[in-house]
Amino acid sequence: MAALGFLLGWIRIVDSPALMALLPVVLLIAAGVMTAKLGWVRQTAVKDLSQLVFYVLTPALLFRTMASVQIAQLDFKPIVIYFAAVGVVFAGTMLVYGFNTLAATRALSHTFSNNVMIGIPLIGLVFGQEGLVILLTLISVHALVLLGSGTVIFELAQARQQSGAGRPQALWRTLGQAVKNSIIHPVPLPIIAGLLFAQTGAKIPAVIEQPLQLLGAALGPMALLLVGITLAYSSIGALVRPALRTASVKILVLPLVFLVIAWALGLTGLPMAVMALAAALPTGANVYMFAQRYEVGQDEVTASIALGTICCLVTLPGMLMLITALQ
Q1: Are 294 and 101 in contact (CB under 8 A)?
Q2: Quick one: 214 exposed, middle or buried, by C-beta within 10 A (0-12, 13-18, 19+)?
Q3: Is the pTM above the cut of 0.70?
Q4: Domain extents in the chain
């Protein structure tokens, strides 16, 4: 009976628009691989394309998204529990691998979900409009919390490594520099600016909003193409094991940790189900942008994003069955 239930749950996902949410991600990564294999994008151009994504497309998307978020209208209880699970997994990763930029890259890979490209259509299919409202509440602060705090961790880890490499400096100066670099940064700065703008009640003028929309819409496809291009120039054979380990933590360990914390704190019903399914999504391509910026773990991140997305075709139906049973 259990096997039959799993099969029916898997068929439910495969024979639905949910698969249509996963396949474009896989196909875009594959298109990036083919582009590189055909020689249309050389390896020397990858970093320049990454800079374009990080400094132009990402800020446009983040500012436009946060510019419509009214903080007073958000229900933060499910979000707090979600980020408690994220904090446990992130801190556990840093403890296992040490306080360095590679560990920070892996920790972000373990905790940053692809909530937009996969999460929105999947949650809409399974839980309807009410579930989408809960997911969009998470999305509204997901980048702010994870990318903002992640930037602080990256900067502190980088400063620590530089100090250990013979460039020591006072702790207060290290912290000050890390905080400064974390704010004057192409990720947190547009998030903060967008939030501040939203609280004024004003709307972005159409002449500005439309270009921001076009730039932001290009972020997801371009980031996934870059994942594929980098994947083509990487030696995946040696990366299968660490990539599968990273993907497993993201799509299996994180949602299970969330479910335990949710149970302990009494979160049930639809909010619990939506957050658990969001935690079970594969790693978002934004993590690759961080790996590129800090020049650490790029190949491992690209492999884990690709493998995690493919594995979710199998794991998401099983996770959905578990979540439904616990509701």
Answers
A1: yes
A2: exposed
A3: yes
A4: 2-326
